Amino acid sequence: MVLKESGEMYLETIYVLRQKKGFVRAIDVATELGYSKPSVSRAMGLLRDGGYINVGQDGGITLTDSGLEVAQRTYERHTVLSELFMRLGVDEENAVNDACKIEHVISSVTFSAIKKHMEQYSKK
Fold first, then answer.
1. For residues 23 and 55, is the Cβ–Cβ distance under 8 A?
2. Distance between CA 8 and CA 33 in Å, rounded?
3. Domain covering 5-69, topology
4. What is the DSSP letter of 105?
5. Largest CA distance in the chain
């Protein structure tokens, strides 16, 4: 299953919510993203069938190894790009919103170059 932007967003949201709360259910994801419960339930089914998440009998959602890999990669892109934009003088709200859009389409080559630049810039 090839993930689209929405799938990456769901996985990233589950990852962030698990960091904050420890236990995540579909309703938590729906609330965080502002989506309807049926839309989130359908997405969770697709992610489960694709091998990205597991859903326990208690409704708890956990990321599989492949789901965790996608979620961490997406989250890292989000945080690095947000930081870059804010350092460039973009206000936080716009920086975060723009990073959220770009994190799904930026190539790994370009992101690696940005990350390397940010690391060098931080050392100065």
1. no
2. 13
3. Arc Repressor Mutant, subunit A (1.10.10)
4. T
5. 51
The CB density around residue 9, as the number of other CB atoms within 10 Å, is 21
The residues that bridge with 54 in the sheet, in sequence order, are 62
What sign has the CA pseudo-torsion 97, 98, 101, 106?
negative
The rounded distance, in Å, linking the Cα atoms of 19 and 35 is 21
pLDDT tens track for 72-115: 999 999 999 999 999 999 999 999 999 999 999 999 999 999 99
CATH of region 76-123: 1.10.60
Q: How far apart are CA 122 and CA 116, in angstroms?
A: 10
Quick check: helix, strand or coil at residue 73?
helix
What is residue 53's three-state secondary structure? strand
Sketch the domain layout of the chain as residue ranges.
Answer: 5-69, 76-123
In sequence order, the 6+-apart residues with CB closer than 8 A to the CB of 33 are: 9, 10, 13, 40
